[in-house]
TrEMBL record:
Residues 5-253 form the NAD-dependent epimerase/dehydratase domain. SUPFAM superfamilies: NAD(P)-binding Rossmann-fold domains. It comes from the Bacteria. Pfam families: Epimerase. The gene is arnA. This is Bifunctional polymyxin resistance protein ArnA.
Length: 349
């Protein structure tokens, strides 16, 4: 099966990893747009990869042309950094909802299948032991807790896609990543606080700041998923053998990798000590507790835990996550810190 796949946000964490996997293991063509290409160094120049530098809010004609041209569309562009949900909620709304809704409407118009990245955050503060795609209530905080604007934007697009499915038989799949981690998640050379998500933020803190700040003591629990495991599930969704992913929602996470943010920080510090050239930084780093409201502002609110049910992915995709969290962190650190041994080979043309 040869597919033409359009990936918007192709230079992002999921986009670049998915593109590299496709070019290595499939005969599909990939058309990608993003505002940069620094994470695509192994893909640029490949005969089955066509990249254009652009902005989804500006380059609308290019996007419409390629929606018509391609079989599957993955609109992966979004602001997904919690500090920005609080500080720039309107920017989050304009990009994550408005810009993506315009793309989805074009896909509906041309009857092109959409694979949309929902989020584990749509479950919000649900108290279910495991979050189930079909039965778990989506519980968000009050309006003045602006942290929830990201979750709300994603949830509304989920509901719109579902409605198009019911009313028009539209072909879509929603996937909900649960804290995917790995190489190229964010940059670790960013010295500005809040520019990254937890794993890369903690690595950057060790290298640049000498301290890791844990919001509310880091008691919040998350289920961390290695990027390669997530990409394997995503490829199965794109393949859609026997229409197994048609109008379905999939949690893509690893319930066995459930640990607190404090445990995550401690594990990263210990692992960084295994790299001789930065061991001294990890040995001196301080872990301090900070109040969430003081750290992020009065509009912040958090969830206590986030564990996925992955029965849908197991049953319909035949997918199981394989990578434990320590191995996932070690592979991430190898990429960022073991620079002299990092493979830089290009994908064969």
């Amino acid at each position: 099966m040869s597919l033409k796949v359009l990936i918007l946000g192709v230079n992002g964490f999921i986009g670049n990893s998915l593109t590299e996997y496709i070019l290595r293991h499939k005969n599909w063509e990939v058309y990608g747009m993003d505002m940069a290409s620094d994470k695509l160094e192994k893909c640029l120049g490949h005969s089955r990869f066509k990249f254009v530098e652009g902005d989804i809010t500006i380059n609308r004609e290019w996007i419409e042309y390629h929606i018509k041209k391609c079989d599957v569309v993955l609109p992966l562009v979004a602001i997904a950094t919690p500090v920005l949900y609080v500080q720039q909620p309107l920017r989050v709304f304009e990009l994550d909802f408005e810009a993506n809704l315009e793309i989805i409407r074009k896909c509906v118009l041309y009857k092109k299948r959409v694979i949309f990245p929902s989020t584990s955050e749509v479950y919000g503060m649900s108290e279910d032991e495991k979050f189930n795609e079909e039965t778990t209530n989506l519980v968000l905080g009050p309006i003045h807790k602006q942290r929830w604007i990201y979750s709300c934007c994603k949830q509304l697009i989920d509901r719109i896609l579902y409605a198009y499915g019911v009313e028009q038989g539209f072909s879509y799949t929603l996937f909900r990543p649960f804290n995917w981690i790995g190489p190229k998640l964010d940059r670790i050379d960013e010295e500005k606080e809040g520019s990254s998500r937890a794993v890369t933020l903690f690595i950057s803190n060790i290298l640049h700041h000498g301290e890791i700040q844990l919001v509310n003591g880091g008691q919040q629990r998350r289920s961390f998923t290695y990027i390669d495991d997530g990409i394997e599930a995503l490829v199965k969704i794109i393949e859609n053998k026997d229409d197994v992913a048609y109008q379905r929602i999939f949690n893509i996470g690893n319930p066995k990798n459930d640990l607190s943010i404090r445990e995550l920080a401690d594990m990263i510090v210990e692992l960084v000590k295994e790299y001789p050239h930065v061991r001294h930084l990890a040995e001196k780093v301080k872990i301090i507790n900070v109040d969430g409201e003081k750290h992020y502002g009065k509009h912040y609110q958090d969830t206590g835990f986030r564990v996925p049910s992955i029965e849908n992915a197991q049953k319909f995709l035949g997918w199981e996550p394989k990578t434990d969290v320590r191995s996932a962190l070690k592979k991430t650190l190898d990429y960022h810190l073991a620079t002299p041994t990092r493979a830089t080979e290009e994908i064969a043309l």
